[in-house]
Structure formats: structure tokens, C-alpha cells
Amino acid sequence: MSNITKKVSWSSRPDESGAAGEGTPLLNGSEQPRHSRQLSEEGSLFQIGRLSTVDLEEERTSDEDSLRGRPKEIPHNEKLLSLKYESLDYDNIENQLFLEEERRMSHMGFRCLEISRWVVCGLIGFLTGLIACFIDIAVEQLAGIKYQVVKENIEKFTEVGGLSISLILWAVLNSAIVMLGAIIVAFFEPIAAGSGIPQIKCYLNGVKIPRVVRLKTLVVKVCGVICSVVGGLAVGKEGPMIHSGAVVAAGVSQGRSTSLKRDFKIFEYFRRDTEKRDFVSAGAAAGVSAAFGAPVGGVLFSLEEGASFWNQMLTWRIFFASMISTFTLNFFLSIYHKNPGDLSNPGLINFGRFETDSVTYNLYEIPLFIAMGAIGGLLGALFNVLNYWLTIFRIRYVHRPCLQVMEAMLVAAVTATVSFTMIYFSNDCQPLGPEHTEEYPLQLFCADGEYNSMATAFFNTPERSVRSLFHNQPGTYNPLTLGLFTLTYFFLACWTYGLSVSAGVFIPSLLIGAAWGRLCGILLASLTSSSSIWADPGKYALIGAAAQLGGIVRMTLSLTVIMVEATGNVTYGLPIMLVLMTAKIVGDYFQEGLYDIHIKLQSVPFLHWEAPATSHWLTAREVMSSPVTCLNRLEKVGTIVDILSNTSTNHNGFPVVELVTENDEGGNPAKLCGLILRSQLIVLLKHKVFVELARSRLTHRKLQLKDFRDAYPRFPPIQSIHVSQDERECMMDLREFMNPTPYTVPQVETLPGV
Amino acid sequence: MSNITKKVSWSSRPDESGAAGEGTPLLNGSEQPRHSRQLSEEGSLFQIGRLSTVDLEEERTSDEDSLRGRPKEIPHNEKLLSLKYESLDYDNIENQLFLEEERRMSHMGFRCLEISRWVVCGLIGFLTGLIACFIDIAVEQLAGIKYQVVKENIEKFTEVGGLSISLILWAVLNSAIVMLGAIIVAFFEPIAAGSGIPQIKCYLNGVKIPRVVRLKTLVVKVCGVICSVVGGLAVGKEGPMIHSGAVVAAGVSQGRSTSLKRDFKIFEYFRRDTEKRDFVSAGAAAGVSAAFGAPVGGVLFSLEEGASFWNQMLTWRIFFASMISTFTLNFFLSIYHKNPGDLSNPGLINFGRFETDSVTYNLYEIPLFIAMGAIGGLLGALFNVLNYWLTIFRIRYVHRPCLQVMEAMLVAAVTATVSFTMIYFSNDCQPLGPEHTEEYPLQLFCADGEYNSMATAFFNTPERSVRSLFHNQPGTYNPLTLGLFTLTYFFLACWTYGLSVSAGVFIPSLLIGAAWGRLCGILLASLTSSSSIWADPGKYALIGAAAQLGGIVRMTLSLTVIMVEATGNVTYGLPIMLVLMTAKIVGDYFQEGLYDIHIKLQSVPFLHWEAPATSHWLTAREVMSSPVTCLNRLEKVGTIVDILSNTSTNHNGFPVVELVTENDEGGNPAKLCGLILRSQLIVLLKHKVFVELARSRLTHRKLQLKDFRDAYPRFPPIQSIHVSQDERECMMDLREFMNPTPYTVPQVETLPGV
């Protein structure tokens, strides 16, 4: 760790860099590259060739110095970018093999390809919907059993006075279930922890996170999320759906499973990063769609988090996957609920319908909504700061799997205890109405025919609690209950996020927000008792939920649409939008969004949408690394092996140059011919595609695109390829395999333009 | 016209070409460029410089030959692309002036800029909403008066038997009103004809259509659309809203009006194509949003029709404009309807709410929906083919304004006559229910307490007719009425589209579709009289409307979302999507979409999303024009004036090269330094930015970015700039003004990649 260098090989994600004018977190303030002057002299190669590898390389000696004093366990420093992340290759490699294949294809071939893309998207939607359905039913069944057991126990002991036994039963049950979930995550697939949204966000932005879209991750994720929700943690099952959808997409689109060692020999054309990422976008959208019943929101989520380019057909396919996903979920849930054909459960969470007639808002309420947005932003920033510290603590001291499992169990037990205590000491009794909307009403110390209102919020799956906060009649909760609930749930949720369990933060955020939002509504109603417009605290619960969620995750467009779709009422579009905007502005003033924090803490080299405003000062010349590691068109095998093995230059792509034979006085010694990727070189080495020195006698069979596709995506490391001393002397002809038309950036281009 | 050449200067819309892999209609089948071999030898300049000007230039001798025999009046040939269209400049010109300004700006400056972008978008939404509100109220008032007068007249003459007088009254009234609308369009602003959607689509795709976003166009458009709707033509007022929103956006964002000669000295930073187009997208979205009450649909419309890049902040702002627009409309309409605070009229057309409980569909109905989609596709293609022939006819023979006005009047009179005849001969009487949903029920020959059902469809604004087809009770219409109505309205709408009046095709399409859709529903119900699921013909009307509209305009994603938002029910998302997909596939088999037909007929060089599938055969080298017109960094004024005046090379941007002083044997005589635009050269010439031959004595004041912005967007033609013989001998230094980092494309890049 003493010589950490950052390399963000922009060369292999050209559409990112060419697209939206992206900046980089590296280039803030004092971090001006020190090589800049030197480069402009040395970089004469660029004058003609316009190499595309604008690499960022900085040796952070200052950071290193400050690191040296610390203990060995510190696995990271958030300001450093990790070397373990590579970028996806977005540029189509238009080499001779590829062009030959494209030119062999007929019109019919392209049409079949297009149709199979649609089929894949349909499958993605269908499978994602099924998974959502499975999770929903599993959670409902298991949680039902658990609540029934605990409820009976509580009822038994309420009168005889041994409620501590109930508490212990509850806590032990929760801990046991959560332990199961934590063990599979911590020991088998740590990447399945959390909601997976930061990881998917990175993936869609072009960062290849290892193991993130594997089958094993999916299995662990699904089982893990069931355990954590059933285990009563302050989590939701919605976030993980996005990750699940993405894994499904990555699997289905490749037509094979490396884990299961099955190759169906279909969809081979899609075995490259460009195509795969498109499908992963569709999968993520299908996940959102299934989670919230929001197909349009899903599409916008994919676009907001991932897309640099707007591609009409792709978006249309993403929308198709989303539609199929929500339809599948809806259809199977309607069968499960013994009401086939009733397609009114489009998502895992349904906010219930806000009817325009009954719940309307007025122009003068908008400032109030905006104020609530600001509160949401503040609370969200607080949540994020606390979670940030907690995560730093966890990274330092809780990084062994068994410790992680124990922490998760502890949280589960504490959650149960706190809930129980809150319910126990609450004296907010509500009459048990004829509608009987509560699934598990706890009478506790209330009179007969009444139930404990605090228990509605705590002794229930969070989805139900949210819905009851939105829609229950005015007067169902008293303000003290809501205030206490907000406070405890806030800290519980904050503690829970980042545990090594699969779980999302959407629902807890909504729940916290709905609680304090409803509180605001009640207070307003009591202040202005005459006017009926304030009477319904449900809409304030909705606004509060939006504000809190916006304050924590800082999503904007897609979240607005998701909320609008989930409430089924476009009238609330404008207030929700204003609230989310306010929450984002206020929150950003203090701290980044939760997902961005976790991305940063994982040292992922993530490029944001906008370059820093003042980065017009910097040009490509000043941020690129130098000297550039180049290969010749006809290169010695030994040189290639050495370059690939050299850990200090482990770039992912190398420019291929041609030496101009003129005398050197013009200062133009080399000309760019193309770009070749590390993975391509590895495949070439593996297949021994060498030209012996006695020219033009080939020692290898003709390589096909298929060879590259078969190796994709798990290319072996260079160390696993044995190259004999004789072979080192051979030459490799790169012309046929390199991409002759890589993206290039002029040296004088400013950073936002890059 | 004898020497028509096509020049699509790709150089100045690099993000288009770099983005989605766009092809060009030029390169189909036999149209292989003849220069290709020649170029690869001549183009040695490209070997190093990588010029960005990949211009397409073809002299179509074969087409010319076939043209020669025809009369002079033929103003176009649809296979030729017109020279009158230029492209927008999307690349930020990062020249020294620009960089200096950017570097002078503080963090605060960028923040203010960002805030002013939001303010502009808010204003755009507000004004667009107001315009929609104005149109709606004006149409309602005027149409109300008209229908009242005619209704009273008809009632008077029904019994005494002089109904022909009523017919004449109706026809004359309609013709007079339509004449007014046609006169202002035909004589004052022909670009305001039609819905304006094809023009906006072109603009968003980077084609600069002359006069399309001017204030005068807006005024003519608004008055024109009121006249045509009140005049009883088979048109809607929704399409023109999109154009209106775009004009508002282009005007507001520039902070001045060239027509009114007012410059508010604000938003000067936005006076360039890049920024302006962003705002125009927002305006178009706000227009859709106001028209259909579909803010998300508006955003997606803008993206589907225009965007190559997905920019998060921009989309978010577009959404904001859409939200404000629908909110403004809703708010003011609620005041107009004396029901302030009731925000349930979000758009100009409201489909009314389809409740999930009452109107549900079943899995086995989906094949039926798809079949209806196919019917919609067929009917849409028929509509488009008929309209295509009609438009060809109009272009040939009806191109004088007074002829156009007369045609419009004729159509108005025929529409009135046909409607009247249909109503007269219809004997479909329906009881006048207690709800009394019809605004102007005509009794005619029906018994007392009944009204003529055909009159509901014809004697009404089309918006109301659509709604009654969707929501009226089963049995309100008999099948014969619907069949006849579909038939006549189909031909009327087809005849009407393309008239020189401002009017949209959305509502007529929906109306035709709703009519035959409802017919299908009724037939299905009569076939399977037992099952209650078929009972409601309203949902079939909805599906039919979607199918017909999809078959005509071929929009996909945005139309689905618009329909979903307008019905307020996400459950119908999947069927609508499948229907639109089917309609598009079936329709595309026969004929392009209506908007694409009109774009082609106007000879606009429009690039589609996808390159032709088999264009991998072609590389940039083969489609570029040669020799390239280059300028030196220090160029003689005379040369520049000559190049700009030369009509055979009227490119919009010129590469600036540096001659390498080496001996020529290497074959690299020139190196690309940058790109300079025609408009920049014009401004430089206007301000006489010359360097006299006695070096470095400048004869001009220092030019500012402001000078370029003041001239934007109406740069004078080169002919209006006088350059004396002495001045012709001066030199111009282009280095400070050229864009040093234009987009470049390697010669060997394939066409889809370009």
C-alpha cells in the first residue's frame, strides 16, 4: 500500500468521457498534477497521433506520508482510488474480425439479432418479476408466522405479567433469522451486502465491479433479503430488487452460466461489455419497476444512473422489460391473493391510491411543502453523516466476517428490544375499527376493542406501516407516538444500513419521513383547526416520505416519477418534485448522497455527471499520464508479456503505433494506428498467435471472434499464461485485432470537454 | 435547379454523428458515392490531420436527367435534400475567447448561470401553460357561440323544414373562420402550417429550419389553431402546443426579441445553438405536457425526438418546465371553471379517468389488443399513403397562397356538409339521460327527451367526442353510427392534414381510433353476450385510439407514457405498449410515419437514429467530400471571401490547417489545427479583424465573445459584407477564433460508428 497510484484509464470508456463532460474527483483544489509542464515537452507523440489514452496517474506522496503512521488494518483511504476496479469497454472494437463478421451478416441476420434483443429483454422482465414475486411471498409467509407466534406469546403473557419472556422470544427469533442472512452474505458473497444500488450505479457508469453480476450473488442476495426483512431489521426489500434485476439481465443475455458451467450456445453476439451493459440497464429498470410498480420510473432510473447516450431503441426495450416485470409480478401476486385478473398490485410496495377528489392541495401549501423538503434534506444529511462515520468505523474494526455476523445479530436484537420497549411504554390506544386494517393488532394494555397504535408502526412489515401512515384516518396516531417512532427508527435505520446483510434503505427512509410528515400534518391541523384543507395528515406523510428519501439518496427525476407512479396520482407531481429538489439542494450543502458516500468509501473511480465548474483551467495534456506505454504493430511477444506483467503500468488498453521512418528532426516519431486491449492481448497470447521471425510463416490457426467471446468476461490473468523463452522471441501481429478507430482527444481539449 | 448537390455538413453537428451511430438516407442501395476510389488516393491530408469535415456531396446526374423533362413548377424531388437547411452547431467552440471567459468566471458565476437556467425553464413552462390556457378558453368560447347559433338555427328549421338553410349557415360560418386562419398562415407565415411537430423534430435533431422559432410564427400559430378548431375542421389543438412551447423557449432563453427589437441584456450566455437547443427541448416538453397533462410524457417526447446525449441536469430541468406548464394550465383553468384549487384538468385533452376497479382487462384479451394494434397499423399506413399522394399533389399544384386558402375553405365547407348529412340521415336516437353529459344535444328528428347520437360525434369539439367515446355507457352508440363516422372522419382528417392551417393530427387520429375501437368492443360484446368482461366498449375505444394514433405517427415510448398519463391508469401500460409496438411494426412495413413523410417531402437532410444495418461496408473515407476546402491559420481575406461566396462549396465550417514546412516526400503536407465556422468568419469580416501584411500591426479593436453573441442567430449573408480591394490583400488570423478541438473521425471508421 505504500505506492498507491491512481489510474483511471479513460481510454477504455470513451463514450463516458466524450459524452457529458465528466470531471473527476481527482482534480480538486491542490491536486494539480505535477507532471504538467514536463508533459507538454515530452508529449510530442501526441502532436500527431492523438493518442486516446488520457490516463490519470498521480503518486500521492502526501497521502502516503500521512498513511505511514497508521496500523496495517486500515484497508483504504477514501481519497484514494482503488486499483482493483477496471472500466468496461464501451467502444465497439471495429477490428478486421468484427468487420468481417458484420459484413457477412445479411439484413435478415440483423433483424434476428434485433428480435433476440427483445426476447432477452422480455425474459429479463419476466424473471425479475418472478424473483420479486418469490421474495414477496416468502417474506409475507415467514413474517406472518413470526408475528403470529410473537403475538400469541405476548397475549399470553400480557395478563400473567411475564412480558420479558416475550421480549426474549422476539429478540432471539429476529437474531436467529438475521444471523442466517448475515452468514451467507459475510462468508459466501460479501458483494451481496446492502442494497446493491451503489454497485449497480458504478456498473452502469462503466466501472467493472468484480463479482457483482454473478449467479451466486443473486442467490445470496435473494435469500439474504428475505432473512433481513423477516428478521425485523429496519430495512426494505425494494433496493435489492434492482441488483437482482441487473444480475438476471447479465446472466440471461449471455446465454450461459459460468458458475453452472452451462453454455446454451445462444446470444453469443451479446458477449461483450457494450451489449451486456445495455441489458444490465434493462435489468435494473425491471427491478425498480417490480419494486415500486413504476415502469417509467424504472426506465428513468436506468437513464439517470447510467446512460450517457440516449438510444431510442434501447430505451424502448428497457421500457418493455420494465412493463413485463411489473406485469409478471402483478399477475402472479393476483393469483397468490386468489384474485386472478386484479392487476392492482403492480409493485412490492404500493402506496395505495391518493384520490384527487379527497386529497387535494392548495397553492399556499407549496411553501410548506418546500419547508418540509428542507427538513428532509437536513435529516437526510444527518443520516448520511452518521452512516459515514459508522461505515468508517466498520471498515477499520469490523472487517472480519464473524464480527460482521455478530454485529448484524446485535442490531436485530436491539431493534426487537427497542420496538418492544416503545410498544410497552406507549399508551396510545386506538379503537379497533370495523375495517380492521391492521394485520396484527396488539391489544397489550389497551381496553378491549382497542389496539396499541405504536405497535402498528413497529409490529408490522415496514411496507404496511408506510401505507397505514399514508392512509389511516386522521387521529389514528397521536403526535407523541409519531415523534418517538421517528427518533428511534431514524437511528435504527442508520445503524442498519451498511451491515453485512442484503437490504435496502428505501422503505426505512420512507417510513421515517412518513412518520414525521404525518406529525407535521397533525400539528398543522391542530394549529388551524377551522380549515378542512389541513385536515388530512396523509398527504403530509407522503410529502415527508419524499423529503426524507430524497434527503438520503438524492435521486431526483426518477424518484419523482417513482413516487408519482406509486401513488397513482399525477397531481402530486409538482409538490413532490419541489420537495425532492429542495431536499437535494439542502442536503448537498452538508454531505453527499448515501450511495455516493458508499461508492467513495469503496474507493471506486467514479466519474460524476458534471466536471467541476472551474476545470476549464485544465486540458487533456495536463491530466494524462506520460510516457505512454505503446506497442508496435508488429511487437515482440516478450515485450508484450513484460508490459502486461508490469504491475506499475497495468493499463487496460494500449495504443498501437507505427514508427514513421523519416529522420527524427520533425519530432514526429510515431503515428497512432489503433488501440488494443489487455484482454485481447491475453487471448492472443493464450492461443499463441505468433508470427515467427522468419516472416509470414504462421504458427497458429486463424483466430475467430468466437475465441474472444468464449473467454469473455473472465479473462485469465497474465500470470496464468506460460510463455516459453523461444516464444518470447516471436512476434505478434496486432493489426488484425486492434481497434483501428479508437476515440481520441486533442491535447488542448479542456477537461469538461473530454 | 439543374445542379442540385447535397451537402450534409456533418462537421457542425458532431454530437449527432458521434452519438447514436446515425446513418443517412443518402446511402441506400445504388447510391454508392462514385468518388470513393479517387478519394482514398487524394485524401492524404486525412492521414494525419483527421479532418472533421466528413461532408457528403453527390451530384445526382441520374436524378437530374429525369427531372429535366418536367415543368418548372415542381419545386422539389423528394429524394433530393434541400440546400436551404443548415445544421445547428453543437460542439462548444472552445476557442481562446471562450476559454478566457470561462476561466474568468468564478464558482459563483457558474452557480448563477445554473440558477438562471432553472429560471428560464420555469418561465418557459409558465408561458407555455398560459398559451395553452388561452387557446383552450378561446376555443371553448368561440366554439360555444358557434354551436349555439347553429343549434338554435337547426331547432328552428327542423319543424318548418328548411334545414338546407341551417346547412348553409353552418358551412359558411366554418368556411369564414377557417379562411381567417388560412390567410394568416398562407400569407404571413407558411412555416406555421400544420402541427409543427415535423419541424420541431428536425430542429431537435440538429437541422436549422428557417423561421421556425420566431415570435411571428408563434402568434400566427396560436391564432391559426384557434381558427381551425373553431372552424370545425377535423383537427386538434394539441400538436401546435409543442411548436408553441418551442418558440416560447427559444424566445425566453435569448433574453431578447429580434422581431420586437428589444434586448433585455440578460441570458447573453445562452446565445448559441447548444444552449438554445436545450431550452427548445424543454419548451417542446412543456408543450406536450400542457397538451396532454403528461409531464413525464413530455420529457420522454423531447428525448425520443431530439436527444442524442442524456444529460441528467438538463432532463431534470426539462421535467421542471413540463411540471410548471401543466400546473399553470391546471391552475388557471380551475379558476376559469370557477373551481379554484381543483387540479384535475392537467391538459388540453383529458381522457377522463379509467378506474382500475371498473375497467379491467384479462390476460386472454391481450391477443385481441394486439390484433387491434395491427388494424391500427394498417389504417395508419393507408392514412399516410393517401396523405402522401395528397401532399405531392399539393406541392405540385396548390402552392400559391390564395389557392391554399381556397382549399382550406373548401375543406371546411365539405366537413360541415358531410357532418350535416351524416347527422341528417342518422336515425340513432338515444335517450337524454339525467347526467346530460352532452354540451350541445341535437334533437333533430328524434322523439322528445332523446338526442341524435351521430351529432354527439360530429357536432362537438373533437376532444369532447373522444371522451364520450371512451366513457359513455355501453349502448350509447349503435354500430352503424360508429362505422359511418369512422369512414367519413378518416377521409376528412386525411384531407385536412397538410392544409395551410395550424392544426394537429393527434385528436383526429384518436377520434378515428376510438370510434372503430368502440365498434370492435360492441361487436365483441354482442358475440359473447354472456361474459361481463367484454361489456365495456370504453377500453376498446382506448386501445383503438392508441392503435390508430400509433399507426399514423409511429411514436412509441413517449406515446405510451402520454396515453398512460392521460388515462391516469398505469394498468393499461402494457396493453397500450404492445398495441403501439404492433401498430408501428405493421405500419412501417408499408409506409413511414406521417411526420417522417412530411420531413422527407420538405427535403430536410434528417439523420435517423440507426444507420442502415448493412452500412458497415462503408467507411468515412468513402462518404466524405473531397477535396476539402481548408483555410490556413493566417489566411488572406480575399481567399476567405471567395470561399464563402462560392455557392458550390457553401459548407458551414472549414478546417483550419497548418502547412508542415518539411519537404513533401512524406505526403503529409498539412496538419489540422482547428475548425472555424462560416458564422464566425462572417463576424470577423464584418468587424474587419484584419492583420495588415506588415505583420502584427492590428487594425481592429479586440473582438469579444459578445460580438458573436450579438450577431447570433441571424448572421448576415456574405453578400451583404463589403470588402474593399485593399482589404482583400490583408490577412486574417484565425487562431484565436477557431475551435482548436473539433470532433474528428478516422478515415477508416465505418459509417455506423461515425
UniProtKB/TrEMBL annotation, chains A, B:
It is a multi-pass membrane protein. Pfam families: Voltage_CLC. GO terms for cellular component: lysosomal membrane. It comes from the Eukaryota. The keyword Transferase does not apply. The chain crosses the membrane at residues 118-139, 167-188, 218-236, 279-302, 314-336, 366-390, 402-425, 480-499, 505-528, 540-564, 570-590. GO terms for molecular function: chloride:proton antiporter activity. This is Chloride channel 7. It comes from Salarias fasciatus (Jewelled blenny). The lineage of its organism: Eukaryota, Metazoa, Chordata, Craniata, Vertebrata.
